[in-house]
Design goal:
Layout: H1 11-17, E1 28-30, E2 40-42, H2 49-52, H3 57-66, E3 72-76, H4 82-91, E4 96-100, H5 104-116, E5 122-125, E6 128-129, E7 134-139, E8 148-149, E9 155-160, H6 162-167, E10 176-179, H7 185-190, H8 193-199, E11 202-206, H9 210-222, E12 225-229, E13 240-245
Parallel strand pairs: 3-4, 3-10, 4-5, 6-9, 10-11
Antiparallel strand pairs: 1-2, 7-8, 7-9, 11-13, 12-13
Length: 246
């Protein structure tokens, strides 16, 4: 049930959300729906839609339908671990999940979610994904979910290139990648160009801004990807792309 799809301004939306305010932010509650139903989630780590299982409802359903047991999934821009946790359940003990997240506060909740659920098939890389490795400037957004790499950023974070990590043997090649990096999409792809040309991972991509969206679509099409939208909108109007190699 897509509870997050009920508008906050509607009477039903207000009635549903009001009692949620009474739940302590440090409480660990079970996720209520989806393939990771029953897994523990810290209420204050993100909005209530996460533990209700209705956050990005259509994308969650697609994720569950597409990712098979035993696969390797990269969660690029893991935030506090929603898709990381879901992917760990989907791939099972024979699979592997690698999550990339640079912000210390997000990493705290991400690691707590892994610890609370005794997850052992996830590797955490404490870094942003970009076109260069090293220390880069990061600009924090209005929420912890919306920070991004930016030259005028006031925070210094570590960054990695996916090509480097795979070609060195440090990480396995991915079959699936969820990418949500708040405007650094092209930089992340530039640092994974050889990986994408060789492995053709299936992509769950969020883009940020119409110009960047068009550039991402053009790049992926040139690499031989077939593009669909996750939210059902026209390709040029959506920001959620499901890309598979043809």
């Amino acid at each position: 049930m897509n509870l997050s799809g009920i508008p906050k301004t509607s009477l039903l939306g207000r009635l549903i959300r009001y009692p949620l305010r009474l739940i302590p932010k440090d409480a660990a509650v079970p996720i209520l729906q989806g393939r990771f139903k029953g897994k523990k989630w810290i209420v204050g780590s993100a909005n209530h839609g996460y533990w209700l299982g209705s956050y990005e409802f259509k994308k969650r359903l697609l994720f569950e339908r597409v990712i098979p047991p035993g696969s390797v999934v990269y969660d690029v821009g893991g935030f506090v671990g929603y898709y990381t946790l879901l992917a760990s359940v989907l791939v099972g003990q024979e699979g592997r999940v690698v999550v990339f997240e640079p912000l210390p506060r997000n990493l705290y909740y991400l690691k707590e979610h892994l610890r609370l659920n005794r997850i052992s098939n996830v590797t955490v890389v404490e870094a942003a994904v970009s076109d260069q490795a090293g220390t880069l400037s990061f600009k924090e957004g209005p929420s912890r979910a919306r920070g991004r790499l930016a030259e005028d950023g006031g925070l210094q974070v570590q960054a990695v290139r996916l090509d480097d990590l795979v070609e060195s043997g440090e990480l396995p090649e991915p079959q699936y990648m969820k990418v949500d990096v708040e405007g650094a999409e092209l930089r992340a792809f530039a640092g994974a160009q050889r990986l994408m040309e060789r492995c053709h991972p299936t992509l769950f991509l969020d883009t940020h801004g119409s110009k960047l969206h068009a550039e991402c679509c053009r790049l992926l099409a040139e690499l031989g990807y077939r593009l669909e939208t996750i939210d059902g909108k026209d390709l040029l109007e959506s920001k959620e792309i499901f890309a598979t190699y043809e």
